[in-house]
Design goal:
- It is built from eight helices and five strands, in the order H-H-H-H-H-E-E-E-H-E-E-H-H.
- It is of the alpha+beta class and 214 residues long.
- Helix 1 packs antiparallel against helix 2.
- It is elongated and about 65 Å long.
- Bound molecules: zinc ion (ZN).
- The site of zinc ion (ZN) has 6 residues, from helix 5.
Amino acid sequence: MLPPDQIETIKKQLISQLDSSNIPDKENIKNNITSMNPEQLEEFLMQNNLIKKEDGAQEAPQAQQCIFCSIVSGQIHSYKIDEDKDSIAVLEINPISKGHVMIIPKEHIPTSDKLPKTAFSFAEKIAEKIKTKLNPKDVQISSANLFGHEVINVLPVYKEETINSQRHQAKPEELEKLHKKLEKKSKPRRVKPQKIKKIKKSESKKLWLPRRVP
Ligand SMILES: [Zn+2]
């Protein structure tokens, strides 16, 4: 656990970083940071890769074992093109064809019958976008289970590709280009307000003091 004085320092640093950024929703994020308790702050820092677990510390089992949970939480970089409340859509880095996308449910869902219905409608939506932007002959949607986490493949078909066709490792430039093409033009990131308790006025005031120069 982080010592209390360090927590205050970290919060102030984060807030001053936000102040100097042009993130659209930063007031909201700042309020959330201000009101985080030490556990929430630590969790937030880890999820954003700002700190690492101490050696020997127990990682949450899902984060440790499942690559998709790590992608969802942002611990592993991905080319995310869209998301809805239940799933994210990322570019497959070992695609079968150009624009191969994976729909990853945000929860660690172990079997296909537990996949939220919204995951399929979301996949359909992404498939439509791929059709418009990349003009394949067809787009196939199929679920798969990897590392015990159900995902949905959205596979553009240009020739005779199927989900069992050979994959290749995509070059970063290739992925960047596709990402630009398919990315949803973003609304500001929504911060879940219900997860974070409101804090007392006196406390929030204290945190708005200008950062001390070391
Ligand atoms: Zn998982």
